[in-house]
Amino acid sequence: MSNINNQTQDFYSIEAVQDLSYETAAAISGGAALELYNDSNFGKLLVQTNEGTGNVGNDVNDRITSIVVNEGVWRFFTDSQFRGLSADLGPGRYANIGLGFSDSITSFWRIG
Q1: Nearest residue to 68 via CA among 101, 46, 100
Q2: Which of 8, 20, 106, 109 is 20 to 30 Å from 64 at the Cα level?
Q3: What's the predicted TM-score (pTM) here?
Q4: For all residues of the chain together, what is the average pLDDT?
C-alpha cells in the first residue's frame, strides 16, 4: 500500500491559470460566444471572443465573411466605434453573411 502525500495548492497560484484572461480561457475551452471567420462556410478562423470591440484591428477589419454565434445577440457595424450600417445576429451559424456586410465588419458588441 502506498502512502500518498496530501498536499494542497491554491488553484490561482498556478502560473498558467493566472496568465489567461476570461476571453482567452473561454476561447481555448470552446466556450467563446462568438466566432468570426475569413471565408464563407467557416473557413479560416479569425477570432473567438466573448467581448465586443470598437475596432477589430487590421488583421480582421473588412475580412469577416462567416460567423458563428454560440450565445447572445450581437450587433455588427460596417464602421469603427459602432457606426455605419448595422445588423443583429442571434445564436446560429451564418455561412455567408452577405447583404453588404461580407468583408465589411469593423466593430461589434453584444446586445443580449
Answers
A1: 46
A2: 20
A3: 0.71
A4: 81
